[in-house]
Design goal:
This protein is an all-alpha fold. The chain is 52% helix and 0% strand. Helix 6 (95-110) packs parallel to helix 7 (154-165).
Length: 166
């Protein structure tokens, strides 16, 4: 249902009522999709509140909440969520993080992310003892091969790209 026509679970979609029942009973995937939908239509903060019950159980929900915290400048909260993600799901420097980021970007597009870059002024990637802003950050050419970026920079660029979508 979501993979074929995500608009069908939107506000006026023919599966909306059934989908909301799934959300009400706590279907973890339904909560994830509704959280993304709300973040693109009502704002990142609303998306965070909606997705928080899925943390740390659902990997994509955990990742997206961390990314949304980066977007709104809550770097300490982002660091905490990213640490939970790393413990419960995959290493933040792994190939899987790139694939998850790609899936997230695709999902946000399907929910009509506005590409307004409205979080440019508040974007703040964690830089503490556990999660650090990569020092090699601007020494790569990402216009040529985004998939081939260094493992230190992957999470940062995923956050950066998603912040431009919202």
């Amino acid at each position: 249902m979501v993979n074929v026509t995500p608009c069908e679970i939107g506000n006026y979609g023919k599966f909306r009522q059934f989908f909301l029942k799934c959300v009400e009973v706590g279907n973890i995937d339904a909560v994830y999709y509704e959280g993304l939908h709300r973040s693109t239509s009502l704002g990142v903060e609303v998306g965070i509140k909606f997705l928080e019950p899925n943390i740390p159980t659902h990997g994509l929900s955990t990742l997206v909440v961390g990314i949304f915290y980066v977007c709104i400048g809550e770097d300490m909260k982002a660091s905490h969520v990213f640490q939970q993600f790393a413990v419960n799901h995959v290493d933040l420097r792994s190939d899987a993080i790139f694939e998850m980021g790609d899936e997230l970007e695709s999902r946000l597009s399907s929910f009509h992310a506005r590409y307004l870059n409205s979080h440019n002024a508040t974007f703040k990637f964690p830089d503490n003892d556990v999660i650090k802003t990569p020092r090699c950050l601007y020494g790569h050419d990402y216009m040529v091969d985004f998939e081939g970026i260094c493992k230190n920079c992957r999470l940062f660029w995923i956050c950066f790209n998603i912040s431009h979508m919202l």
